[in-house]
TrEMBL record:
Residues that span the membrane, as ranges: none
Species: Flavobacterium akiainvivens
Name of the protein described by the UniProt record: Antitermination protein NusB
Keyword RNA-binding part of the UniProt annotation: yes
Family stated for the protein in its record: Belongs to the NusB family.
Length: 314
């Protein structure tokens, strides 16, 4: 679920939070860092379960409409294509998904069903839904394409839903694009192979990624003074107070990877942090950071200070 770039972002944000609160408790901040990463799993389950709850809400609406004393012909014989959608049904019956939701106690939509009802109203107003409901038959390909489009075009960008997620956990703001992209790919590639065909991805690709979170955080925080000295001399026209806080943290993390993570290629480190700078810092930050890192790499190589193991790591 997590890629290395997003791990770097989470570590950067935790170090920034430490600076802003003047916290000196690395243990406390590291615990918060790992908790914020664990919360990404909850966000994933919350977004997928929204699709399940939308189907249930429509099913409940149809059932209540049929029981009306003066039900119309349309209400007595409703089009159940949405409720019978093969992908939504598969998600509802998915054992891995149900177990994960129960384990993580994801009950947000039961406690806040008004968001699901509002979202369902918005869905029914779309041309996507109206075109889909023109027939009453369900096929796997059409149902899969519809749910994929429904999620990417209606559910994921829904403002009310975004506001709820932002209010629920502030750390989710930067996680939402990562989670929604993953779910979109899963829906697009879903096959009708039974109740277990929808798998809940692991949070970390492997144990190395989880270790990377801890090691990058600790090695950067514990060596901040020394890491800062590495680039201060390379910025003669800038004093430390003029360098943006985020830029300073990015530089320290990148230099930390240069010197203390021998298995990570130099080019990977530079490219990753330049992309992070473009997204999270000032418009000119990536140029500034790139210039410093390039000069540092040349100095390290000249002084045999840059030790990388494995092929193609320079």
């Amino acid at each position: 679920m997590l890629n290395r770039r997003h791990i770097r972002v989470k570590v950067m944000q935790s170090i920034y939070a430490m600076h802003q609160t003047s916290s000196d408790s690395m243990e406390k901040e590291e615990k918060f860092l790992f908790q914020s990463i664990e919360n990404i799993r909850d966000l994933y389950l919350l977004m997928v379960s929204a699709l399940v709850e939308l189907r249930k809400a429509e099913d409940d609406f149809i059932e209540k409409s049929q029981k009306k004393h003066l039900a119309t012909d349309a209400e007595r014989n409703p089009n159940k294509k949405f409720v019978n959608n093969l992908v939504l049904t598969l998600l509802d019956e998915s054992n891995p998904l149900s177990i994960a939701i129960a384990d993580r106690r994801i009950n947000n939509w039961q406690l806040n069903d008004d968001y699901i009802l509002l979202l369902l109203e918005d869905i029914k107003e779309t041309e996507l839904y109206k075109n889909y409901m023109q027939t009453r038959t369900n096929t796997w390909e059409e149902d899969r394409d519809f749910v994929h489009a429904l999620f990417t075009e209606v559910v994921a960008p829904n403002e009310k839903l975004y506001e709820y997620l932002e209010d629920n956990k502030l750390t989710w703001v930067d996680d939402i694009p990562v989670v929604n992209t993953l779910i979109s790919k899963q829906l697009q590639n879903l096959t009708p192979e039974g109740r277990d065909s929808f798998s809940v991805p692991r949070l970390y690709k492997d144990i190395d990624d989880k270790d990377f979170v801890r090691d990058l955080f600790r090695k950067t925080v514990l060596n901040e003074v020394e890491l800062a000295k590495e680039f201060i001399d390379k910025t003669p026209n800038w004093d430390t107070e003029r360098i943006a806080e985020i830029d300073s943290i990015i530089l320290k993390m990148a230099i930390c990877e240069f010197l203390k993570f021998p298995s990570i290629p130099v080019k990977v480190t530079i490219n990753e942090y330049l992309e992070i700078a473009k997204e999270y810092s000032t418009p000119k930050s990536s140029i500034f950071i790139n210039g410093i890192l390039d000069n540092l790499v040349k100095d390290y190589q000249a002084g045999n200070k840059l030790v990388k193991t494995g092929r193609g790591l320079m």
